């Protein structure tokens, strides 16, 4: 009896699987025809560079070199946050704003696409000096 139940269950599973696969194949076959019909009806529009152009038009703010006024134009950044950013410079990456508790994670999520972190040779030297000093104490 157990063997018969297992055989029936296995057969049902195979039938369901083949039915779903054949349905998926039929659905995929219909999509190119629909796309071809809609392409004939509507003119083609190039979308490949739209996102790249939109990103290029946004002026990114360098957190290591921006003025207080430039920083305050960012979402969630007021005078106090701008002052903290300026006092905490240089930053090795924009994520340091959160790790050094300059801004909250929510604020960072809102502005991370609007900021960059450029480092000069002088900034790198200062970060290396701070790192060495912090790790020599331990």
Please describe what this structure looks like:
This protein has 138 residues and is mostly helical. Helices cover 65% and strands 3% of the residues. It has a two-stranded parallel sheet with strand order 1-2. The termini are far apart.
Question: Which key phrases capture this entry?
Answer:
about 140 residues; mainly alpha; DNA polymerase, domain 1; 2 domains; two-stranded parallel ribbon; 7 helices; 2 strands; about 65% helix; about 5% strand; elongated
Provide the domain count: 2
Helix content: 55-70%
User: How far apart, in Å, are the first and last alpha carbons?
Assistant: 72 Å
The count of strands amounts to: 2
Q: Which CATH-level-2 architecture of the largest domain?
A: Orthogonal Bundle
- Widest sheet, order of strands: 1-2
Q: Could you state the CATH homologous superfamily of the largest domain?
A: Photosystem II 12 kDa extrinsic protein
CATH class group of the largest domain: Mainly Alpha
Strand percentage lies at under 5%
> Which structural class matches the secondary elements?
mainly alpha
Give the SSE layout.
Elements: H1 2-41, H2 50-57, E1 61-62, H3 68-72, H4 79-87, H5 96-99, H6 105-111, E2 115-116, H7 121-137
Parallel strand pairs: 1-2
Write a brief caption for the model.
The chain has 138 residues and is an all-alpha fold.
